[in-house]
């Protein structure tokens, strides 16, 4: 199973450019996970023929906050995945994320606009970065691909221009 992961799109509406980039990046993905700050729900229409899960972020509209949960737990094969936008803003960010979930194999989050893919405390942490290249830290647009089989394998990719 191939899962496409994005976050921090920060778009006020669905645009043709976003749709084209999303289709290119996630063409082989049967599941899409959005880790918040989509800003507007119409963004999810770019993924109509796929299983889609999203959480709201701190920059989301009132409508997004009402429609989407703060966090979500998903199960794929023998793995449990936590999806959240953020949990605090301090140096122990990932430890605070761990406190949000019980017995997960992977935590997917956003907020920082900084792409991350590593293990901490036995958990795979994935932050796809900002899909729209809005990162304060000079990162290009990025996203993640999670392969779920006998193991979890994730990679970070740059959004093609």
Category by helix and strand content: alpha/beta
Q: End-to-end distance, in Å?
A: 26 Å
Overall pLDDT: 92
The major sheet is characterized as: 5 strands, mixed
Q: Can you describe what's shown?
A:
It is a single chain. The protein has one domain (2-158): 4-Layer Sandwich (Purple Acid Phosphatase, chain A, domain 2), CATH 3.60.21.10. It has three helices and ten strands; from the N terminus they run βαββαββαβββββ. The chain has helices spanning 16-25, 62-67, 93-98; strands at 2-6, 31-34, 51-54, 71-76, 79-84, 106-108, 116-120, 123-127, 142-148, 152-158. The radius of gyration is 14 Å and the shape is globular. The mean pLDDT is 92.
List the helices and strands and how they pair.
Elements: E1 2-6, H1 16-25, E2 31-34, E3 51-54, H2 62-67, E4 71-76, E5 79-84, H3 93-98, E6 106-108, E7 116-120, E8 123-127, E9 142-148, E10 152-158
Parallel strand pairs: 1-2, 2-3, 5-6, 6-8
Antiparallel strand pairs: 1-9, 4-5, 7-8, 9-10
Question: Which key terms come to mind for this protein?
Answer:
single chain; 161 residues; alpha/beta; Purple Acid Phosphatase, chain A, domain 2; 5-stranded mixed beta sheet; 3 helices; 14% helix
Q: What's this entry about, in short?
A:
By secondary structure, the protein is α/β, with parallel strands linked by helices. It is 14% helix and 32% strand.
């Amino acid at each position: 199973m191939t899962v496409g992961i994005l976050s921090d799109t920060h778009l006020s509406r669905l645009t043709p450019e976003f749709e084209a980039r999303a289709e290119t990046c996630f063409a082989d993905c049967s599941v899409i996970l959005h880790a918040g700050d989509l800003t507007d729900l119409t963004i999810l229409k770019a993924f109509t023929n796929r299983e889609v899960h999203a959480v709201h972020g701190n920059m989301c509209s009132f409508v997004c906050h009402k429609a989407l949960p703060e966090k979500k737990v998903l199960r794929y094969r023998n793995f449990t995945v936590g999806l959240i936008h953020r949990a605090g803003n301090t140096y122990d960010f990932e430890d605070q994320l761990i406190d949000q979930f019980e017995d997960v194999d992977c935590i997917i989050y956003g907020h920082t606009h900084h792409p991350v893919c590593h293990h901490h405390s036995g958990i795979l942490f994935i932050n796809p970065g900002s899909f729209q290249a809005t990162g304060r830290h000079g990162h290009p647009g990025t996203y993640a691909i999670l392969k779920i089989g006998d193991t979890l394998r994730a990679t970070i990719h740059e959004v093609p221009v």
